[in-house]
Write a structure and sequence with these properties.
Blueprint: H1 2-25, E1 32-36, H2 43-47, H3 57-74, E2 80-89, E3 93-94, E4 106-107, E5 115-123, E6 129-138, H4 156-167
Parallel strand pairs: 1-2
Antiparallel strand pairs: 2-5, 3-4, 5-6
């Protein structure tokens, strides 16, 4: 009985490792560029000061990779999408008033929705601008979606914002 549990655990670990290696080995798409404008001034960076100081790369690097990979899927041949992220405020916040051990715990509540602000430019193969604009991505009902609650990805709510924006399609970006 114990050996079968151990075998299942090892198989799950191998699968997780294989998918992580596959994801990490995926080269960035050449039809999407994502960059951050002054990430030290992002709302998330300001909220995570002091004892709650976050390493920005812990969330900005995977978010950048995710945006590029997802956006590249919706583009037609020859199109290029340039995205400049101007602010990120992740879902949840720190509530240190709950005690000394809670000052490093991100509390997810509906009063702390995820936010991403960005500028984008979509061009065709000749460099002609097809679409350009600014978006303020918000999801005030992010807690109502039952699937992310089961997900252990710390960026699941922010990725949901990106997915909803991209689902609208390139012609409506």
């Amino acid at each position: 009985m114990k050996s079968s549990s151990l075998v299942r655990l090892l198989c799950a670990a191998c699968l997780a490792f294989a998918s992580a290696v596959t994801y990490a080995a995926t080269p960035p798409p050449d039809n999407v560029s994502v960059h951050y404008k002054d990430p030290k001034n992002f709302t998330e960076a300001k909220l995570s000061a002091g004892i709650n100081q976050l390493n920005a790369d812990d969330y900005l690097k995977p978010l950048k990779e995710y945006i590029a990979q997802r956006a590249s899927r919706i583009l037609t041949s020859g199109q290029h999408l340039d995205i400049e992220v101007t602010d990120v405020d992740r879902a949840g916040d720190f509530e240190p008033w709950h005690g000394p051990r809670m000052d490093q715990v991100r509390v997810i509540k509906s009063i702390y929705p995820p936010r991403i602000d960005l500028n984008f430019t979509l061009t065709d193969a000749d460099g002609k601008v097809l679409s350009k604009g600014q978006r303020k991505l918000r999801d005030l009902a992010f807690m109502d979606d039952s699937s992310p609650a089961l997900d252990s990805d710390s960026l699941r709510y922010e990725k949901g914002l990106i997915d909803r924006w991209l689902r609208k399609g390139v012609d409506k970006l």
